[in-house]
Amino acid sequence: MAELKTKTWLSNEILLFARGWPLIQKSIVILILLSLLSTGTRVFAQQQNANDPKDVFEMSLEELMEVEVYTASKYKQKVSEAPSSVTIITADDIKKYGYRTLADILRSARGFYTTYDRNYTYLGVRGFGRPGDYNGRILFLIDGHRINDSIYGSIMVGNTFYLDVDNIERIEIVRGPGSSLYGNNAFFAVINVITKNGGDLDGVEVSGQMASYGTFKEQISYGKKFDEDKEIFLSYSNSNSKGQKLYFKDFDDPSTNNGTAKDCDKEDYYNLFGKILLGEFTLEGAYVTRNKRVPTAPWGAVFNDKRTKTHDQMGFLD
User: Fold this and answer.
1) For the chain, which domains are there?
2) Between residues 297 and 62, the one the model is more confident about
3) The whole model's pTM is what?
């Protein structure tokens, strides 16, 4: 049975949304749309074939023990032979459970939990989650590329993560210290996010989402396998949210708007991801930028002031 990969989003809505975009965003969208036109106007669907991996719920215990992982030892081996406790979360799991951020995915894993302070999302492991760690005790990889920053060793797991979750093929979580193999940050766990290739999409996917608190999201992705060892994958996503109207008892005073923070929880972000495979050569890069208003008046800031916000901007090329 064919699984429909294209989600509906009206073309005139895309054109209206693109007004005012920076040149780099317009260029990416134009490139992807041209690729779409070059392959025709048909709807792309992914066919299920005999070589596709089985649903984990349909696999026997023996088959599950034959699943291969890479992150535990830096080479492919059966999960039953890995020297660590390994959890694998697949793209099918992400789709079935409706995970929208990396934080959603990780808090579903045994021993992991998240907290949110209206600015950043923090990841805790087995009860350890010290304030100020900024997720620096866990090593994060994208296709084996270290993405913890070089100052605090931190990583963003909420909307500031490099990738949209729809671009993830699978996530390998290796529990326990791994510093002897990976070096710094690999104290509680090593998490390797493995992305999709062009052949996994084999066409264009355009999607739109609406949620509460005036939240909208758009995404367009293009993937193509041209030859046995030539593939390309490109993706762009954008989201904005008005946020919630919040009440803080500590600021319940007429001079501070009776403790109500209005229009101070707004968030918007966009990210770009691309990967080109040419034989043994792989070029991969990602970029994300995010603006978040902070309603909690941190560090002695004026309460209910829309100017209190954080701006994050990160990228890598490998």
Assistant:
1) 2-44+198-317 (no CATH), 53-195 (2.170.130.10)
2) 297
3) 0.76
